[in-house]
Amino acid sequence: MKTISSLLQVFQSRKMAALLLLGFSSGLPFFLTGNTLKAWMTVEKVDLTAIGLFSLVAVPYSFKFIWAPLLDRFTLPFLGRRRGWLIGIEVALLIAIAFMALQQPKQALQLLAINAVVIAFFSATQDIVADAYRTDVLHELEMGAGAAVFVLGYRMALLLTGSLALILADRIPWSSVYLLMAATMAIGIFGTLLAPEPKQISPPQSLADAVILPFGEFFQRQGLLQAFLVLVFILFYKLGDAFLSSMATTFLLQTGFTLTDIGAIQTGMGLIASIVGALVGGVVLSKIGINRSLWVFGILQAVSNLAYFVLAQLGKNYQFLVLTINVENFCGGLGTTAFAAFMMSQCNPRFSATQFALLSSIMAVSRDILVAPSGSLAKTTGWSMFFLISIVAALPGLFLLPFFAPWNQQPVAISRPGLDDEEGDLWGRN
Hints:
By secondary structure, the chain is mostly helical. It has two domains: 10-203, Growth Hormone, Chain: A (Up-down Bundle); 207-406, MFS general substrate transporter like domains (Growth Hormone, Chain: A), CATH 1.20.1250.20. It is 76% helix and 0% strand. The protein has helices at residues 2-11, 14-32, 35-43, 48-53, 59-62, 68-73, 80-99, 109-137, 143-169, 174-183, 186-194, 207-222, 224-236, 239-255, 259-303, 306-314, 318-345, 352-370, 374-381, 383-399, 401-404. Helix 7 (80-99) runs antiparallel to helix 8 and helix 15 (259-303) crosses helix 17. The two termini are 20 Å apart.
């Protein structure tokens, strides 16, 4: 009962409420420069080649570690080291998304592309600071809950900008849709104002230190071989999931399901299942720890791809489609929570913006670049074999777990200046 009471206390805290809203703010721009924007361009009859090339607007997410040192080194003169940057970026995002209402995809494609890249840049920058804030403010035993709540907010934003935005676009002009989405950035601004300020941690003394020290500290603390294995693990842990996700919609369309089926079941129901998975993952992680969660959730995440393999055998079967979407997204939510908590645990709060940006950029390379051959692979092998290959793609990440996340070993805590010296916390530790 005492453990359950402690868990409930964590989820009900002001800190977690703020992380929920910051997660929402972090997820809001993603579809507005991705799937939702491509739907708008499709309706406007933009050339398919141009629509495909718009995937490149996501490039800032893969290179955000380049400017992350600036956010570690410099502090704005209001709201502290992290929250000052957050609120400034959120206001910039609100304006940039609102500017999308002025765009005309068919007549001025270049202006649309510039606007989308600006949003992606600010969105990636917001991710840098939000991830750093989350790393700074959470104690070790709160990381599972914090990751789960943040992912919950992120997925809620995807529901809004994915499902609801498309439904609204059938009834009101696209310009009005983007203005409404811009207005919801106010939720993130409120979350930043609500968020408690982390304990003061000395930033790097110079920009050179902000660039060099985070990487040096990471490799020195881990050891060269261990650090290399951690980076390779981050590259591969969700590769199987990324392979499947990149081609899931195309597979469902070719199987005979309609866009309405996909929007209602894959997007709507799937996101809800991933939210439930993230929350369950946070609770379980708080009980069994990050190491064991990486094992359990990673295996479930890989095995869940078998549901798509079976669906490929059955063909257009609505009942099994519902089961497939729920199982795969639930397990994906579990894996995302463990993965986020693991990356937080690898960061030193003094350099958390740069170090987390580096780790998440490597993850983005897996999600956006390594999956590039997936279409050609599916065309060559057929869908059934493709889904089996997606399971194989998850194995390298699992094989690396014994080297730095052994089942029976507690992870070594990173010194957290300004946090570890507290007299106690809501878990009752001294």
